[in-house]
Amino acid sequence: MWFYLVFALLGGVQAVEPIIACYYNLSPPANEVDPTLCTHYLLISYTTITGNGMFDPPSVEEARNFSIIKERNPKAKLMLCVTASNPHWSMMVSTPLKMQNFADASAQYMKQHGFDGIDLDWEFPTWSSDAKKSDRNLLTILLKTLRFTYGDRFLLTMATSGPPTITRKAYDVSSFNKYCDFINVMNYDFHVFSWTNPVVGFNAPLKPMSREYSIIGEMNSMSSLASYSTLGLWSNKTVFGIPVYNLGFRLVNYYWNWPYAPAEGEVNTFTSYPSTCNITKETHANGIVYREYWNNAAASPYIVGNDKVWLTTENPRSTAAKAQFAKDSDCAGIMLFQISTDDNRGICGEGKNPLIKAAKKAFLGK
């Protein structure tokens, strides 16, 4: 109780050292991952919530494989990212007892395996069609319960929305300052293909383009950061998310290939950096040619093929630009999603993990 009172009086925990947080799905194997690449490694896809709201952790073997990173670098922080469907999240926060059981079980598991904290990836309380209106307030109670249970022994973080339209509805941002160590703002997936909005667009545009207004004008990282600031999130709690993956669209007409051009579907065959780093230089079958372009406002490249493929991509220039913006905005750190889609083997000719390293260098200034 003494700790909790001091914690409340201080207004929550605050990050001190620059954060380079990297999501990781055990690919490549942990013994092939640079254990000094990131300060925090967040294991995703292996921790969830059951239908009755119980903590469902990685298997012993999965935990053991993840632990190899800390064996190779004891300073690395290893965290479990909890992902689940909205109904499962809603079930877990439905009663104080379920929340406390989740807190106790997760704390016991982390203690047993030597992990350093929990990252909550709830997409998205109150906002999503299968979420409940009560989720927003219950999330605050969950964070309070977890912090009281974890004390200062375990880290508590959240992965939160990039689009301000979601942020304003889904969260009581003041609770992040009180109970979380830091917040991983997912500044990506601003434009994905849907039949309700069948156009191409940038995955992670840094700033709005000149003709983007209203809600569309908010679909960028600068507006995302501004919305969190307006809602009261401290800059030393804010970790700026940067994607290390591509999204693909199929154009209606190859000659209509500008941002917001009509699309007739999505393309899922070019998701990693190695799949696109040399695509414009390579010879392709059937006379297919790809060309890369750069958009200054988005600080992002995009690739257009005469097979009607339109790719919103990242490269070292773009990840560095976004990390520099995060640094200039006094963010506590940057988050990269995720290690597996960077060039882990150096096949692009830029060394290993060029996207993450470019972002890291820009943010740290070295």
CATH topology (level 3) name of the largest domain? TIM Barrel
Main sheet properties: 8 strands, parallel, barrel
Number of continuous helical runs = 10
SSE order: HEEEHEHHEHEHHEHEEEEEEHEH
What class, by secondary structure content? Answer: alpha/beta
Number of strands: 14
The CATH homology group name of the largest domain: Glycosidases
| Name of the CATH architecture of the largest domain | Alpha-Beta Barrel
Fraction of residues in helix: 25-40%
* Whole-angstrom Rg: 20 Å
| Spatial order of the strands forming the largest sheet | 1-2-4-5-6-7-8-14
Low-confidence stretches: 1-11
Highest-level CATH class of the largest domain: Alpha Beta
Protein name: GH18 domain-containing protein
Pfam family, one: Glyco_hydro_18
Family: Belongs to the glycosyl hydrolase 18 family.
Keywords: Glycosidase, Hydrolase, Signal
List descriptors:
single chain; 366 residues; alpha/beta; TIM Barrel; 2 domains; eight-stranded parallel barrel; five-stranded antiparallel sheet; globular
Structure, briefly:
This protein has helices spanning 2-10, 60-72, 86-92, 96-113, 135-150, 164-170, 174-179, 221-230, 316-328, 354-364, and strands at residues 19-24, 40-49, 55-56, 77-83, 117-121, 155-160, 182-185, 238-243, 247-251, 263-267, 290-295, 300-305, 309-312, 333-337. With 366 residues, it is α/β, with parallel strands linked by helices.
